[in-house]
Amino acid sequence: MARARVSAPRVLLAGAVLAQGSGGVRRHNQELLPRAARLLEERGGRLAVLVAKDGLTLSLPDSIERIASNVPSGPPLVRALREGHALGRALAAARAREEPFDLVHSAHLPAPRGLPVPYTLTLHDLRTLELAHTPFSRRFFARSVIGAAVAAARAVITVSETVRATLCARFQPRQVFVVPNAGDHLPVLPRAKAPGAALLHVGHLEPRKNLGLLLEALAADPTLPDLELAGAAKAGEEAALRARAAELGVAARVRLLGAVPDEALPGLYARCAAVVIPSRLEGFGIGVLEAQRARAPLAIAAAGALPEVAGEGVPRFAPDDVEACARAIRAALALAPATLDEHARRAERYRWETSAAALVAAWSAALE
Q1: What is the distance between the alpha carbons of residues 312 and 237, in angstroms, rounded to a whole number?
Q2: Exposure string over 315-335, b if 16+ CB within 10 A, otherwise e
Q3: Which residues, other chains included, contact 105 with Cβ-Cβ below 8 Å and sequence gap of 6+?
Q4: Phi-psi category of 311—alpha, beta or left, where left has phi over 0 and alpha has psi -120 to 50?
Q5: Which tens digits make up the pLDDT trace of 166-210?
Q6: Pick from 46, 368, 320: which is nearest to 175 by CA?
Q7: Which residue spans within the chain are E strands per DSSP?
Q8: What is the overall mean pLDDT for the chain?
Q9: 295: alpha, beta or left, given left = phi > 0 and alpha = psi -120 to 50?
Q10: CA distance 196 to 225
Q11: Beta bridge partners of 157
Q12: Taking Cα atoms as reference points, which of 89, 53, 88 lies closest to residue 72?
C-alpha cells in the first residue's frame, strides 16, 4: 500500500548505543530526539527507536515508539551485526501493519547493512582516524568501516563544520548536513566567583582530553588557581592523573570530583575561576557553550572543532605547549566582564530547537 505524501518522514532510529553512559553523544540524543519527534509528528511523520536489550540511559517522551530488541549496546561489531537483523524485523513488521518507515537513522558506527530503506548517519568526530596514538591496524580498519558507511548512507550528518570538512576531504559522501550541538540545556546562575576559586574542566577523564597538560601548567606556574576535574574516568585515567599530579608536586592543588549530575553543573560554572578545555580532538565541544553561557572565562586548545565553536576572542593554546597553556589561562582570567557578556551572546546562536529543525530537514532532504 503506497503511503500518501507527507512533509516529514517516518524515521526508525538504530538506538542500541543509547544504552551507554554520559557524554556528548548521549547529550546530543537526549536533547535532539524529543524535539525532532515533536516536529515530525506535527508534519505527519514519526520517530521510533530500536532499543538495546540493555535499555536506555536517557529519558524519551511517550510519543517516541520504543521497539524492544535483543541487541547488545556493545561491543561494536556484535552490536552492528545483531542490530541489522533487528532493524530488518522492525521494518518488516511496520510494513505488515501498513505503517512503513521511510528511513533508518544510525547514531553510531558500524552502521547497519542490507536495509530495505535508505539510511542516514551521524558522525560526531573522526577520532580513530585523527588521533596520533591510534594504532595503524585500528586506523586502517576504521577507515574501511567509515568509508563503507558513508558510501552507503543517503546522507551524513556531522555536528560541526570542522568534522564536515574532514569527512569530505577523506571520503565522498552523497550529502552532508551540519546539525550542531548546543548549550541551552543548562540553566545559568549568576557568577559567584569567590577567593580561591579553582579552574574547572568538565568531561570524561580519558587520554584524548589531554588533562595531563593542565597538571604540567600548574607545576610550571604556581600562581595559577587550583584545578577541579568534573567527570567520570575511563580506562584507569584517574589513577594515571593522580600519579602524574604527585610526580609534578601539584597533587594538593588538583581535585577529582568524579561524575557530576547535571543539576550540579550550573553551580560549578558559576563559582569557577575559569574553564579550561585542553583536548587534542573534539568534534564539537559542548563544554565551550556551557562555559560561555555561564559567563565563565574560558581557555581552549586550538584543536578539533573547539575554535569553531568558541569563536574569536577566546584565549587558546597548542595542545602540546605547557607555557602557552598557562599564558592562555592567565589571559582568560583577565578577560573583562563586557567580553564575557559578548561571548555569552555569541553562544546563543547554538540552540537545541534550531538543531532539531535542521535534523528533521536533513532527514526530509535525504529522501528527496
Answers
A1: 32
A2: bbbebeebebbbbbbbbbbeb
A3: 11, 12, 13, 14, 119, 120, 121, 122, 363
A4: left
A5: 999 999 999 999 999 999 999 999 999 989 999 999 999 999 999
A6: 368
A7: 10-14, 46-51, 65-68, 103-106, 119-123, 155-158, 176-178, 199-202, 227-230, 254-258, 274-277, 298-301, 316-317
A8: 93
A9: left
A10: 7
A11: 122, 177
A12: 53
What Cα–Cα distance (Å) separates residue 361 from each residue in 15, 36, 116, 353?
Answer: 20, 10, 22, 12
DSSP 263: G
pTM to 2 decimal places: 0.93
How many Å apart are CA 125 and CA 58, to the nearest integer?
Answer: 21
Query: Which residues contact residue 66 at a Cβ distance below 8 angstroms, ignoring those fewer than 6 apart?
Result: 48, 49, 51, 56, 60
CA-to-CA dists, residue 51 to 45, 56, 80, 102, 200, angstroms: 20, 7, 13, 19, 35
Give the confidence band of 1 by pLDDT, cuts at 50, 70, 90: very low
In contact, 309 and 207? CB cutoff 8 Å: no
Bridge partner list, 301: 317
Give the C-alpha distances (Å, rounded to integers) separating 35 from 61, 91, 123, 230, 317.
10, 23, 19, 28, 36
- Please name the amino acid found at residue 284: F
Antiparallel, parallel or unpaired: β 254-258 and 227-230: parallel
Query: Any residues with CB less than 8 A from the CB of 348 and at least 6 apart, and which?
Result: 184, 293
DSSP-assigned states of every residue in 51-104: E-TT--SS---TTSEEEE----S-SHHHHHHHHHHHHHHHHHHHHHTT---SEE
Asked if residues 21 and 232 have their Cβ atoms less than 8 Å apart, the reply is yes
